[in-house]
Amino acid sequence: MAKIDWMYNSSLEQFLKLFDGSIDESEKVQLPSKRVEIIIKYLTFHVYKYVNRGLFEKDKTSYILVIVFKILVTAGKITNDDVGVYLKAGADLDARSEKPKPFNFITEKAWLNILALSRHHFSRETVPFFRELPESFARSENLWKQWVEKNDPENYPVPDFAEKIAAEKDIGPLVLICLVRAIREDRAQVSSYLFIE
């Protein structure tokens, strides 16, 4: 039996109906800048509901995550590069030109992801958040091995970084899902639920 790939379609006409409805139905205020802000919030929520209603259950988390990322980027809390590091992690790196993987409990791909995370500046920070991540793995190998091998590592404190992640109210949740996705890609969707909340 052949695999069926589904394609979601929507039209400009559908969006324009939602846009016009947002102008007509959102709260009216005198100040134009406030009015625009209200229309944008109203439209964002109603487009989200409209599209989400027509998605397969397996695609809803990805869709919501894209919306959350876009809202945070627009608000200036995260950057497009932060979203990029979540999506591709170490895919840009060439294993032949990087330091070889020193641990058996992680994959080659996870090691490249760790290296990429150690170089990434989240939300315009001056020093990479995970700058010492490779050294932390070497220093606390047993703790990292235990964390990586847990069934649900996203629910446990991250070795050497738990306090630092907790202290970052704006980017802490993003940093955590980037780390989980980088090391345990199989847990990326589950950790995304926590981020979305």
Describe, in plain words, how this protein is organized in 3D.
This protein has helices spanning about 10-25, 30-55, 55-75, 80-90, 110-120, 135-140, 140-150, 160-165, 170-185, 190-195. With about 200 residues, it is mainly α. About 60% of the residues lie in helices and about 0% in strands. It folds into two domains: about 10-80, no CATH class; about 80-195, no CATH class.
Assembly status:
single chain
> Could you report the average pLDDT, rounded to the nearest whole number?
86
Find the count of extended strands (DSSP E, 2+ residues). 0
Portion of residues in beta strands equals under 5%
Q: How many angstroms does the end-to-end distance come to?
A: 38 Å
- Unreliable sequence segments: none
| Mass-distribution shape | elongated
Briefly note the structural class of the backbone.
mainly alpha
Rg calc: 20 Å
| Largest sheet entry | none
Helical stretch tally:
10
Give the topology string: H per helix, E per strand: HHHHHHHHHH
How many domains, as an integer? 2
- Specify the helix fraction band: 55-70%
